[in-house]
Each structure stands twice: as C-alpha cells, then as structure tokens.
C-alpha cells in the first residue's frame, strides 16, 4: 500500500540534495506516509520505517513500510535508481517505559550517517523533522497532527521542547523517563 504513495514534484528548491524538492512538499508527503502507518504501529506496538525519495522520473515516493522490532527498525534499501531524501518511521504504541515522544539519539545519528533528513511520528501524534546533516530535530507539527494512540496520556509529556540538538537529546535521555512537570531544556 505505501509504495503506491507518490507525488509528482515540479518545484525544485530543496537545497543539499542531488535532486531537489520543495521542503513543504516533502513535509506534507511525509505526514501523509506517517499517518498511513500509525494505526498498525499502535496495534502491533512496533516501529515501521522506510525511505522517501525521488524515482528517476522525479516522482516523490515512499518505500514499503517495514517493521523489524518493537523499538527499532531496519529499513529496506530504496531502489538504486532513486534519490533518497529522507527516512521515516513511527515510534509504536504509547508506553511509560520509553520516551517515545522524542526522537532518539540513534534517530539523529543514523540520518546524519546517511546525510539525509528524517521524519518520525509519535504515539501522541507529533511529527518530528530530523535534519541529519545538522544533527538536530524539530517538531514539524504537534500532538494530534497524525493519529494518536488512544492510550496516549498527554499529561505525561507536558514539557517537550520544540527542537533538540543531538547533545540536548543525549542529556534528556540520561535524565531518564519523563515525569510530570519536568522542564524541557
């Protein structure tokens, strides 16, 4: 189902990639793809992941979403004739055990290693944009932007910052699980 999602891209403003795409178009496409994997991600309590890229005709496409683990995901490579622009993945179902409302440090490090961007959906329905080359993550849209897990408790994650550097996320995860009313960096 997800491999059939595509969008013909006509404007080319996306700096830093071999093939250019308007960032607004890519963001909207990523949100659509993430919305499409949220429910199954909750039902199976698994991360689902894939790539977003341009095929040889300049059509923006998503690879099939794949699930390999509860709290991790190994992405199947995109076709070799695609220009990969970004990764995407969900964070599974709501749990008090993991701080799944934030990107992990690994999320940023893996996108940085590939020199691409990333998009992450959370149980609360947030969508994060990861700028791998810069080592940062920012909230693209807040809670409820995409479908939220019906078990999500918004009172737990009251202090999520709008953006994080890799170093800030490392410090956040060293502090341990979220607690009510703790201040974000």
How would you explain this protein's 3D organization?
The protein is of the alpha+beta class and 185 residues long. The protein is 22% helix and 22% strand. The chain is built from three helices and eight strands; from the N terminus they run E-H-E-E-E-H-E-E-E-E-H. It has an eight-stranded mixed β-sheet with strand order 1-3-2-4-5-6-7-8. The longest helix has 22 residues, at 23-44. It is globular and about 45 Å long.
Per-chain topology:
Layout: E1 6-8, H1 23-44, E2 49-54, E3 59-62, E4 83-90, H2 105-114, E5 117-121, E6 127-131, E7 136-141, E8 163-165, H3 166-174
Parallel strand pairs: 4-5
Antiparallel strand pairs: 1-3, 2-3, 2-4, 5-6, 6-7, 7-8
Compact overview of the structure:
The protein has 185 residues and is α+β, with helices and mostly antiparallel strands. Helices cover 22% and strands 22% of the residues. It has helices at 23-44, 105-114, 166-174, and strands at 6-8, 49-54, 59-62, 83-90, 117-121, 127-131, 136-141, 163-165.
């Amino acid at each position: 189902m997800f491999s059939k999602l595509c969008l013909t891209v006509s404007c080319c403003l996306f700096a830093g990639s071999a093939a250019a795409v308007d960032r607004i178009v890519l963001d909207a496409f990523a949100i659509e793809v993430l919305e499409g994997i949220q429910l199954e991600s909750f039902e199976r309590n698994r991360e689902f992941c894939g790539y977003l890229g341009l095929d040889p005709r300049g059509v923006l496409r998503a690879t099939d979403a794949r699930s390999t683990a509860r709290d991790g995901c190994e992405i199947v490579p995109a076709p070799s004739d695609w220009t990969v622009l970004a990764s995407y993945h969900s964070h599974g179902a709501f749990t008090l055990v993991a701080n799944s409302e934030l990107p992990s440090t690994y999320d940023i490090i893996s996108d940085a290693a590939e020199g691409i961007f990333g998009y992450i959906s959370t149980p609360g329905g947030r969508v994060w944009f990861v700028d791998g080359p810069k080592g940062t993550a920012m909230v693209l849209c807040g809670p409820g932007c995409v479908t939220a897990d019906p078990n999500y408790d918004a009172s737990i994650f009251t202090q999520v910052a709008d953006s994080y550097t890799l170093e800030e996320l490392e410090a956040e995860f060293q502090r341990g699980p979220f607690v009510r009313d703790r201040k974000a960096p």
